[in-house]
Amino acid sequence: MTQAALKSTLAPWRAAMETATPDTARAATRALFAPEARLQLCHPFGDLTGPDALIDAALGPLMVAMPDLERRDMIVVAGTTPEGADWIGCMGTYMGRFAAPFLGIPPTGRLAHMRYHEFFRLEDGRVTEMQAIWDIPELMMQAGAWPLAPQLGAFLATPAPMSGDGLAISGDGAAAMTRVIDMLTDLCKHPADPDPAVMRLADHWHPRVNWYGPAGIGTARGIDGFRAHHQIPFLRAFPDRKLDAMGDLMSHWIAEGDYVAETGWPNMRLTHKGGGFLGLAPSGREVTLRSLDFWRVEGGLIRENWVLVDLLDFCRQIGLDVLARMEEGA
To answer: Which residues of 53-76 are buried (b: 16+ CB within 10 A; e: fewer)?
Structure first.
C-alpha cells in the first residue's frame, strides 16, 4: 500500500480515539484490528491477542482512570519496511483528568499526560500486529509516585515537531534514513574503540538537537546534554550493547520525508555491568531492551529524536518491580 493509503486506513480509528468512550473505542478497535491481531505492549500489560484484549487490559482501564481521555497524535509516519511489511508509527500523548487510580498510580485530580509510541502493521486493511510503549513513569512522576532516583534530563510534556508537520509528512525518506543509520553505525563503534570521537556526534546531530527520552531518563538539549544526561550513564551501565546483531533482535524501519521511525521488540541485548543508569547498582544480568523511536532530520542533521524505552520491563528483568515498590512507598 502507498503511504497515503496506509494512513487513510488508520485514520477512522485515530479519529474515534481522540475523544473515545469505552463503547466507541471497542467498536472502532474491532473494526480495524484483526480478531487474532498480535499485540505486544509495554510492561505490565505484556503480549495480548485481538482487539477486545487491547480494550480490556489497557485502553479500558486508562479510560476509567481518565474518563475524559484524549488521544493527541503529533507524528504519524507510514511506509513499507525493507522486508516488505507495511507499518504506521504514531507518537503522541494521552491526556485527561487523572480521576481514578491507574496501575496503582494514585490520581492527581488534575490534567495529566502520558506519551505513547504505537506502531501498527497492516495487512489487507486490518491491523495484524501492534507494538506499543506508554510512558507510565511519566504519569507516576506527575502523581509524585516515582520510586527510583530523580532523572538526569528535564521533565516536560513532550512537544510535537518544531517544524509543525508531524501530521502532514510525505515524500521520499531515503536521505533521512541514511543519516539515521549512519549515526547508529558510528555510535556502535564505541566503546570497542575507546575514543568517543569515533562516534562523530557533531557529524550527525544538530547542535540544538532535542533528545526526548522516556521519563526516568528525561529530555536532553544539545549534544553535550545528550552525552551528560543519557549517553554516558547508559554506556557505563551497558558497555557491551548490541543492536539488531542477532536473529532474535529485530527492528522494523520506515521513513517518510524528513522522518524515520523504528520499532524493535526487542532490538538491543546488553549486560547490566555498571552503575548509574536510573540510579541503580549493576545487577550483572543480561537483558534485552525494547526501544520505539522517531527521528526528524533538518538540513541533513538530526534535529529532534523521540525515544521511548520500556524501562519498567528492564527493571523487571533485573528483579525490580517498580510498580510494587511504588505501592510500598505510598
So the answer is: bbbeebbebbbebbeebbbebbbb
